Amino acid sequence: MSSVQAAADDVGSQQPIFIVGTMRSGSTLLRLILDAHENIAIGKETGFMGALAANKVIPNWRYGRDWYERLGWNEQEFDTRLTAFYTGLFTRYAASQGKRRWGDKTPMHSWHMAEMARIFPDAAFLGIVRHPGAVVSSLKKRFHYEVQEAADYWEGTNIEVLRHGVELGDSRFALVRYEDVVGDPETTLREVMSWLGEAWSDDLLRHHEVQRAKGAPRLVDGNTNSQDPINSLRVDRWTDALGEDEREVVRVTTSQLAGILGYDAAGTAAARDVVPDNPFGYRRLMTGGSLARLMRSDGAPPMEPRTREGIVSEMSRADLVVRLRRAEASLARIRSRPVVRYGDALRRLQKRLPSVDGVAPLRRVRRLAGIGAPMSKPTRQTSGASPAQTSEAPLEALPARSRTRPVDSTGEADDAPDWPGPP
């Protein structure tokens, strides 16, 4: 048995840590900070729950659900094997880093919390939330989200995280705000370490030095710079990225949940302190019990399960229908643009016009419309002909070349010569 495997066997009973939250919420920064602790190893995003789900339900096969039952395995037995397998993968990684405790940070796992809590019954879930305007503006810039789509994603994902967090209770779920992590890092991180049952380490406040010393890549998940120190100046950077109309979309969509979490959804005011009185004395950390009290307060949004919003790496049929409808709406907007309608109209017209004297119909339409000058093309000089006779010949007089049949935006085949579109 290798020394790494022996060490992995020694850490197999350590309580795993799962960081959850929306994309662009600061989860990578939180991962880098915790990974700097001498006892915790949280590497790059894995998305392993997608693989675990496929272990249980084979994709794209009508008989793929519960396939293991045909071999005499019930779900509880199969879950035990999956727990051992995936724990083995992560504990070996932790041992290779000289650490005793493992974890994972993948935003899409926010939608797998119930299954993760069942497969890993001792796991601790640490959520992170950030001002909706900051997340929306970052999604818009980084992933070209529409503002409404990004706002829906922020609300839906955070409701999902909080809903499961309340169910998990004080011992298995806690939430921090990005603004507290960067604005009051020592207080916030000391509370996180206390909740995780880990000793305090000053390395948490200099994670960038620790990451650089161990040779971590400069740019990691989400294009985050692992060598940047904790910086509170990033909190308000989003405010110049959204216009008034876009801020209004964010406000209308997210104000209920944002208000409960201490945010002014459309403004730049500092986040309010909202952590209720609790037996642990936490000022920045909200456990499952604290969140339960918050979510029962006046103005709190309903906690029913939400439809998954945003671009994710795996989709249910309902999710796919939503994405396809949005794609169709985008295509309809593109087809309505004058430049596209003009090009499509010319292509359709050229199908109805016969060629005359070898001149392609679309070229005749353009010439009649006064678009562009007649094109000419130099030809090779042949013996017995003067340069004046052979240096140029009209392009229309040249033999037609064979061409493929492009398709215009209406989906119709196009026999027209290669033409880049309107000038």
Any descriptors?
disordered C terminus, 16 helices, alpha/beta, 423 residues, Rossmann fold, six-stranded mixed beta sheet, two-stranded antiparallel ribbon, globular
Protein model, in words:
- This protein has 423 residues and is of the alpha/beta class.
- It folds into two domains: 314 residues, P-loop containing nucleotide triphosphate hydrolases (Rossmann fold), CATH 3.40.50; 51 residues, no CATH class.
- It has 16 helices and ten strands.
- A six-stranded mixed β-sheet has the order 2-3-1-4-5-8, with helices on both faces. Strands 6-7 form a two-stranded antiparallel sheet. The chain has a two-stranded antiparallel ribbon with strand order 9-10.
- Helix 1 packs across helix 4 and helix 7 packs parallel to helix 11.
- The chain is globular.
- Distance from first to last alpha carbon: 70 Å
Helix proportion: 40-55%
Globular, elongated, flat, extended or rod-shaped: what is the shape? globular
CATH class (first level) name of the largest domain:
Alpha Beta
Q: What structural class should be given to the helix and strand makeup? A: alpha/beta
Unreliable stretches (pLDDT < 50, length at least 5) are 375-423
Largest sheet: 6 strands, mixed
Overall tally of structural domains: 2
What portion of the residues fall into strands of 2 or more residues?
5-15%
Number of E strands: 10
The overall pLDDT average reads 83
Order of H and E elements: HEHEHHEHEHHEHHHEEHEHHHHEHE
CATH fold category name of the largest domain: Rossmann fold
**Counting H and I runs of at least 4 residues, what is the number of helices?**
16
Write the CATH homologous superfamily of the largest domain. Answer: P-loop containing nucleotide triphosphate hydrolases
At CATH level 2, the architecture of the largest domain is 3-Layer(aba) Sandwich
Q: What is the CA-atom radius of gyration, in angstroms?
A: 30 Å
State the strand order across the main sheet: 2-3-1-4-5-8
